[in-house]
Amino acid sequence: MCRHLAYVGPEVTLGRLLSEPEHSLVRQSWEPRRQQHGTVNADGFGIGWYAEGDPVPARYRRAGPIWGDLTFTDLARVVRSGAVLAAVRDATLAGADGEAAAAPFTDGPWLFSHNGAVRNWPESAAPLAAALPPKDLLQLAARTDSALVWALVRRRLRAGDDLGTALAEPVRELSSAAPGSRLNLLLTDGAAIAATAWGDSLWYLTDPGGGRTVVASEPYDDDTRWCEVPDRTLLTATRTRVRLTPLKENRT
């Protein structure tokens, strides 16, 4: 159910991250190596990136498969950034939301992606949705579980939570309301990355000497420095540091 990637480090072209590596995110759209649910990620894609001096990211999304978009090919060749979040989508349910349902979702300085599915959607998530302000519900970008998950995360970010807390608490709430959900979340503000491993694969590669960190659903090359994140774990990272914290489910 989707593949995603976030990067912070020295400026690189989008292509260097997303299309040039042997097992790149583009290739993962039709041939993922470690995806546990679904086989082809052709239901849309999106890329968000930050320009130097501007805290609000740019974003490019489409409803179709990334491999057929010639505009992306041009963007990937020339756009450079020191912080990127990108995703390719395998829709949980068929729908008409088009590119509005494709990650990354954004608000202010944040970019967000969800790899997974809320089990027994939408009934299971109704109590959590009811606790959101009506304005937040009316502003949902799409009628999908990922859009609601983003609304829960965004509410905490706007309240002042750090990136890690803003992911960890909704994961605990959703796993309690909808046991068996897959909740691999990915978030960046352009300076740091937070992610959760909850039901699907997650890996990271860090190069403190080079000042770069990549967090991804699966490695995009065969570099031996890639490390797998254990399931039920929160990852927080900067360009030079990665921290892993076990996540526990809420007990009722």
Which word captures the global form?
globular
Shape-level CATH architecture: 4-Layer Sandwich
Euclidean distance between termini CA atoms: 28 Å
CATH topology: Glutamine Phosphoribosylpyrophosphate, subunit 1, domain 1
Look at the structure and give the mean pLDDT.
94
Across the major sheet, the strand order is: 3-2-4-1-10-9-11
Taking the sheet with the most strands, its summary is:
7 strands, antiparallel
Function: Catalyzes the hydrolysis of the gamma-glutamyl amide bond of hercynyl-gamma-L-glutamyl-L-cysteine sulfoxide to produce hercynylcysteine sulfoxide, a step in the biosynthesis pathway of ergothioneine.
Catalytic activity: gamma-L-glutamyl-hercynylcysteine S-oxide + H2O = S-(hercyn-2-yl)-L-cysteine S-oxide + L-glutamate
Pfam family, one: GATase_4
Organism: Streptomyces yangpuensis
Describe the structure concisely for a colleague.
This protein is α+β, with helices and mostly antiparallel strands.
Question: Overview of this structure, please?
Answer:
- With 252 residues, the protein is α+β, with helices and mostly antiparallel strands.
- It has one domain: Aminohydrolase, N-terminal nucleophile (Ntn) domain (Glutamine Phosphoribosylpyrophosphate, subunit 1, domain 1).
- 23% of the residues lie in helices and 30% in strands.
- It is built from 7 helices and 13 strands.
- It has helices at residues 14-18, 25-28, 70-78, 126-130, 134-138, 145-158, 163-177; strands spanning 3-13, 45-49, 58-62, 80-88, 105-107, 110-117, 182-188, 193-197, 203-207, 212-216, 227-228, 233-237, 242-246.
- The strands form 2 sheets. Strands 3-2-4-1-10-9-11 form a 7-stranded antiparallel β-sheet. A 6-stranded antiparallel β-sheet has the order 5-6-7-8-12-13, with helices on one face.
- Helix 6 (145-158) crosses helix 7 (163-177).
- The longest helix has 15 residues, at 163-177.
- The radius of gyration is 17 Å and the shape is globular.
- It starts with a strand and ends in a 6-residue tail after the last strand.
- The model has no long low-confidence stretch (mean pLDDT 94).
- Its EC number is 3.5.1.118.
